[in-house]
Amino acid sequence: MQNASYTAQAYRRQQILTASPEMLTLMLYNGAIRFINEGIKFIGEEEKEKSNASLLRAQDVMIELMSSLDMEYEIAKELYPLYDYIYRALIVGNLANNIEKLDEAKELVVELRDTWHEAMKKAGKAKQSS
Fold first, then answer.
1. Where are the domains of the chain?
2. Which of 9, 13, 48, 93 could serve as 101's disulfide partner, Cβ 3.0–4.6 Å?
């Protein structure tokens, strides 16, 4: 059982090391969504420590997204306040076990993820046609 866990971790590590910056961003969005879902689930199960741990990981993802922005671009200046809002919503949701706030944060991340994924597809099609 431990060998399977080690193999899965090695595979994930290799995925991260070989991923493009665009794919890493998509992976961060997916991770945030997963951690928020876990946090909400654990709140419902009254597992406060597990919920806190998952929501702290979601907060870490938002910090990573904020720190990776290149503020020379206008889009980064527009994304930063949105990421910051999501980050703060996660904090409030975590501290107060407020599922509504966590759902709001998750909806925003899902929207960002879906938009990012569509942009990646369009960029890929543009590369193929040139």
1. 20-129
2. 93
Q: What percent of the chain has pLDDT over 70?
A: 82
127 pLDDT tier (thresholds 50, 70, 90): low
Q: What is the 3-state secondary structure (H, E, C) of the chain?
A: CHHHHHHHHHHHHHHHHHCCHHHHHHHHHHHHHHHHHHHHHHHHCCCHHHHHHHHHHHHHHHHHHHHCCCCCCHHHHHHHHHHHHHHHHHHHHHHHCCHHHHHHHHHHHHHHHHHHHHHHHHHHHHHHHC
Domain 20-129 classification at class level: mainly alpha
- Backbone angles phi and psi of 71, in degrees to 5: -70, 0
Tokens of 111: 């929207």
- Give the integer Cα–Cα distance in Å for 42 and 40: 5
pLDDT class of 60 with cuts at 50, 70, 90: very high
Q: Is 83 exposed, middle or buried (0-12, 13-18, 19+ CB in 10 A)?
A: buried
